[in-house]
Design brief:
This protein is of the alpha+beta class. It has two domains: 114 residues, Aminotransferase class 4, branched-chain amino acid transferase, N-terminal domain (D-amino Acid Aminotransferase, Chain A, domain 1, 2-Layer Sandwich); 150 residues, D-amino Acid Aminotransferase, Chain A, domain 2, CATH 3.20.10.10. The chain is built from seven helices and 15 strands. The strands form two sheets. Strands 9-8-7-14-13-10-11-12 form an eight-stranded mixed β-sheet. The chain has a seven-stranded antiparallel β-sheet with strand order 2-1-6-5-3-4-15, sandwiched between helices. Strand 10 and strand 11 form a beta hairpin. The longest helix is centred in the last third of the chain and has 16 residues. The radius of gyration is 19 Å and the shape is globular.
Length: 283
Amino acid sequence: MKNILGVFNGKFQDLDKIKVSPLSRAYTFSDSVYEVIPFYNNKIIAFEKHINRLSNSCDALNIKSNISLCSDEILHLISTSKLKNGYVYYQISRGVDALRSHIYDTSLEVETFGYIVDYQFESKDLKVSLCEDIRWQRCDIKSTSLLGNVMSMNQSKNNHCDEVIMHKDGELTEGGASNVFFVIEGNIYTPSLSSNILPGITRELLISESNKNGIYIEEGKYSVNDLLQAESIWLTSSTKCLGQVIEIIGYETKIELNNEVFQKCNKIFKNAFLSGQLNNNII
């Protein structure tokens, strides 16, 4: 792809010029982790939180990375791009095998890869479907091993949906690329963090900012039946912001479009998101 700035192992160049070995463990085993770091109005959103999560993901997989160097590469992508709004995709993989092997050589040299694109952050209305959570058991690690998500989300797309909300035996986990919030009788709920749920940055920011504004969000275990009783449902992520669910395909719901509680939370998030309170200046 032309005119997209990328970086691979410290070398900055156009994305279409970057070449990766077919024996990269990112390619053969999804033995890699990643982050999506958004920036808006020339300010990075929660940069340290994203970097800390990237570091935690590396630690969980025992990938020995230089997080400081990775941070510098992300900042360089943003500062040289001249983009006002967008995000950086950044990936760290264990390295390249001499020959494909489940057991990795501990002396492998870590690979880093990233790119930056323009993006307009907008809250969009979403149609979703419900599906069984078929992913692996360590979804708290932001790994590139996302085939379960891909399968479920593309099946959902075939049904003219924008996203999925997943559950394990009826217990809610998260969206295909997002966290889930819902409202019952004016109270806000979201599944508590576990090995089946990614600790979303937008999720964390929304809970924190809402609490500061006197709106408490309860974290716990909830069922599909709970969700179907909700008067408002929304999904959060670094690129979705707060996306209001307007329909669950195949189910009757009690969803109220533009619910007052959702509107309050969306306003709180947008004010913080746009004001720079949660942001880091680009340097």
